[in-house]
Write a structure and sequence with these properties.
The chain is mainly α. It contains 15 helices and four strands. The strands form two sheets. Strands 1-2 form a two-stranded parallel ribbon. Strands 3-4 form a two-stranded antiparallel sheet. β3 and β4 form a beta hairpin. α1 packs across α3 and α8 packs across α13. The two termini are 33 Å apart. It comes from Prorocentrum cordatum.
Length: 337
Amino acid sequence: MWWLPASSCWSADFLCFPAMYFGLVPCWVLVMGQVLTRTALAAVGHYHCHRRKDGIHDWADCFFDVQYVGASEVLFDGHVMLHHLYTETPADVKRTVFNFVLTLPRIWRVPLFTMTKFGEFFSGHLVRILNFEFRTRSKAQRFKEAQLIAFRCVMLAEFFWACFCSRWQIWCLQFFCTVWLNMFLIVASHDFEVVREDQSYVGLDWGIFQIQHALDTYITGVQAVDLFLSAGLSCHRVHHCLPYQKSGFANIVSLPAVKSTCEEFGVEWAPARNLILDRWFPLMWYYLTAPAQVPAIPAPIQTGGPGIWGFVKEHMLLRDYRRAVLSIWGSFTGATI
């Protein structure tokens, strides 16, 4: 199935450069095509993120950044070591994906966060990469750093090329759609929005816990296609049980064996959920309409309080606007990554 990532990469380059310059396709096709190809390439980057960190075996992990949400320079430890080892525990770094979003007032939540992601895209990631402090300067580390910088420069070239072609509005629209589609995809494979009772996380079976706290999803029902449409997150229970497999296709092949093992030991295998209807739309409604809040255990604290007055009050708190402005500035300097 090598042709799937290859075609996605070729399509992305075609849409970003010649199609943008010559106007070869309608605007809506250009936007939709870029959103889909960026999400598909993020699937490639996701699995390369789990590979050996030498710049060769993991040559495509920077593709995870192509949807403007990923951060390859920190994902190899934050994602692999914290999310996969401590799934849905307080130490799970993926639980914090929407922490900043939920601190923002509801009316301004989308534009403020979108500006933050643009700042990280425009200069934040490059500044963060260049400010790394390495304990050693091996050849593999220098090669990896060069890969990350080169890929970030290509992404910036896409933006400046769109501006040169006087089609910056199309770029901005695909940026907005890609960011928010992938923001909800990231959390769709776990039910982080569910507030659970305190759990000691002692004496648990790690594999069973992964099966019970990861969600499989589908869009078309064709697993090889859904793998790319979901940024590599559709076959997620196998991925969490076998995180160091080198591709999503390996997870598809391993699915019957993992499923039969669960049946053998009496572990419930819940049916896959529709990614769009069961996860994406409910998550979008939840995260965009939830009251402004700060994370806390056992439940978050609403900054404005409940009800209509709470909605009004959360839009009157100047400290939240100050925090948002500082975060936007920090996104350009790399401080928010």
